[in-house]
Amino acid sequence: SSTQAPVQSCIEIVVAITLDDYPADTSWNVVNSAGEVVAESPTYDESMAGSTEIESLCLLADSYSFDIYDDYEDGICCKWGNGNYTLTSVDGDILVTGGEWLGPIETKTFQLP
Q1: What stretches in the chain show pLDDT beneath 70?
Q2: How far apart are CA 31 and CA 40, in angstroms?
Q3: What's the whole-model pTM score?
Q4: Is the separation of the CB atoms in 107 and 65 below 8 Å?
């Protein structure tokens, strides 16, 4: 008989992105400790300017980085709209949050138990 590794149950987290006036410039991904991209943003378009887009992810216990990109390298706050992002656990604990940065990418790390 073949021995199967136990299936780990995943932990649900919620990614909420409030987009600025140029949503198409914004994208994000979640990378695990092995360097694998385990989640990616949908494509945002101009019709979503100023809206809050919610994605639910289910991730295994691990350490992760949340990488958010802005093509114009000016973040998603505050010159062209008050954008921000927050990753929360289902219990409402904030894992990472932000929105104001300079450069092509902001990276924040978080740990799931």
Answers
A1: 1-6
A2: 9
A3: 0.89
A4: yes
